[in-house]
Amino acid sequence: MTKDNNVITSADLVAQSIDFVEQFSDNVNTLLTAMGRVRLHPMANGSVIKTYKTDVTEAANRTVDEGETIPLTKVTRAVDKTYELLLTDKIRKVTSFEAIQRDGFSQAVTYTDSKILSIAQKNAKKDFFDTLNSKSTTNTKGEGLQMAISTGLGKLTGLFEDVDNVGTVIAYANPDDVYAYLGGTQITTQNTFGMKYLQNFLNVDVVFLTTAIPAGKVVMTVNNNINFYYVDMRGDAGRTFGMQVDQSGLIGMKHSQVDESLTYQSVATGGWLMLPERTDGIVTATITAPKVPTGTDASKKA
């Protein structure tokens, strides 16, 4: 019997799942590499993760007379926030018989899978930006974008001056502020994980443009202060449900036919937390308006 090339086989289903998994993992790794090779931490579902803030009270004197008691320096590493790593993303969608018949298997399924991919990426970023915008960060300000970033760099240097190998400096800024600063200047941006970024911009190694940061703010930290935690999808649970995973186990994916409704089902699942280890190791710089010199026409109108 001659084989019909349009027949969807189990090999097609597995290949589609593997393609999705690899695309998601590649996107995550590209993002973390752009940030300066942020560390990946595969963990079990339900693991507890803590972020910290550090407070140092120096001794009144660092030199004492012979035989006298050396005064104490107090270093406190207090828990700021506690997170539970959960299998938070369970995403399912179906592609109809009619869509596959009209557009073909690969086109119909790949297009709708891309929507799942964007949802998963958005969810993976949410907690991170919530933490970046928290009240626990170190604050500073500067007139205009360039001075805000400069004062932020100064604060950041002070926070990590006694720490070896702090790594890459990363800033997150609202696109409106960056493009207002640039005006008509042509720049080259790169894209990863749904975000544009600039390299070596205003003395910062990497600047990400994202509306998750409010206009008028620039948030900065170093890559060694960031950790990417995720539920490891490798193991018994993933195998039980026939999930396709790659060697990292970042996400599990399965495609299957649903005969009862003449649809083709895509199910993806995973859990991710991208968090700073030290929340006080994040600097938030507020962009202030330049001061108008007194005696000018502009100041008289104000």
What does this structure look like?
The protein is flat. The termini are far apart. It has one domain: phage-related protein like fold (Alpha-Beta Complex), CATH 3.90.1690. 31% of the residues lie in helices and 33% in strands. The strands form four sheets. The protein has a seven-stranded mixed sheet. Strands 1-11-14 form a three-stranded mixed sheet. The chain has 302 residues and is an alpha+beta fold. It is built from seven helices and 15 strands. Helix 1 packs parallel to helix 3. This is Phage capsid protein.
Outline:
This is Phage capsid protein. The chain has 302 residues and is of the alpha+beta class. The chain has helices at residues 10-34, 97-103, 105-132, 144-159, 175-182, 236-240, 297-301; strands at 39-43, 48-57, 74-84, 89-96, 138-143, 169-173, 190-192, 195-201, 204-209, 217-222, 226-231, 252-258, 263-270, 272-276, 283-288.
